[in-house]
UniProtKB/TrEMBL annotation:
Lineage: Bacteria, Pseudomonadati, Pseudomonadota, Gammaproteobacteria, Thiotrichales
Organism: Leucothrix pacifica
Family per record: Belongs to the AzlC family.
Protein name (Swiss-Prot/TrEMBL): Branched-chain amino acid ABC transporter permease
Residue intervals passing through the bilayer: 21-40, 60-84, 135-160, 166-184, 191-207, 213-230
One biological process term in Gene Ontology: L-valine transmembrane transport
Annotated localization: Cell membrane
Membrane topology: Multi-pass membrane protein
Length: 244
């Protein structure tokens, strides 16, 4: 860990900084538990998905597709594409994470979420430290989010049994607001905006496609457009450097 022991102060700071996003995730987790229960998953199946998958949007998609009797390859491919963004998250953190022993990076990879990445990336961009406290700060943020998700799933399953129409309360709007808060400050380059606009347009055009295939299509298109724009920017920068 870059030559330093685990820093309890940075662990607590990471947990503290992610609290606003945890508050937004609470209703989302409760709705997931209630939905999984209402769609026929057992308590252990619903909890197991939160314990071993730990990916909110993918869990919603998987549960919905399972309930609609979608083919397993469709479910697997859709979840895979939706989670591709985590590869981009990981790649952007590697300059700092590569200094951490490989074994310690395993739980970091599993606990990587949109919320954890948002607070960690913001700290790194602000250059609040030299990266030596990265592990402690990251684990503080990620672990608290993980524990919160398990608790909220359990609450959703338990309360969902007694309140059958709980999924219709519109509680999931809190997570939409949270994602907007995560995404918008991160749109700092043309490639980012191209990716966001492409996904927004595509999802509007494919909203009614069956088995969440519209989401799959929109994700792929957004990634492709973002990569193309990024490559064009890099080529332009290289040509300018050559001419100079």
């Amino acid at each position: 860990m870059s030559g330093k022991r685990f820093d309890g102060g940075l662990f607590i700071r990471g947990a503290r900084d992610i609290l606003p996003l945890i508050l937004a995730a609470i209703p989302f987790g409760i709705v997931y538990g209630a939905m999984a229960q209402s769609l026929g998953l057992t308590h252990w199946e619903a909890m197991g998905m939160s314990l071993f998958v730990f990916a909110g949007s993918s869990q919603f998609i998987a549960v919905t597709l399972l309930a609609s009797a979608a083919a397993l390859p469709v479910i697997a491919m859709t979840v895979f594409i939706v989670n591709l963004r985590h590869m981009l998250y990981a790649a952007s953190l590697m300059p700092v994470a590569e200094k951490i022993p490989a074994l310690l990076r395993v739980p970091m990879a599993f606990w990587l979420t949109d919320e954890a990445y948002a607070v960690v990336a913001n700290r790194l961009r602000a250059k609040l430290d030299d990266g030596k406290g990265f592990y402690s700060y990251y684990i503080g943020a990620a672990l608290i989010m993980y524990l919160n998700w398990q608790l909220c799933t359990w609450i959703g399953i338990t309360v969902g049994e007694k309140v059958p129409d709980m999924t219709n309360w519109g509680l999931d709007v809190a997570m939409v607001v949270a994602f907007i808060g995560i995404v918008v400050p991160s749109l700092q380059h043309t490639a980012h905006w191209a990716c966001a606009v492409t996904s927004a347009v595509c999802i509007l055009l494919t909203y009614d496609w069956p088995h969440q295939t519209g989401l799959l299509f929109s994700s792929v298109m957004a990634i492709v457009v973002g990569i193309i724009v990024l490559k064009q920017q890099q080529n332009t920068a290289e040509r300018r450097a050559i001419h100079e």
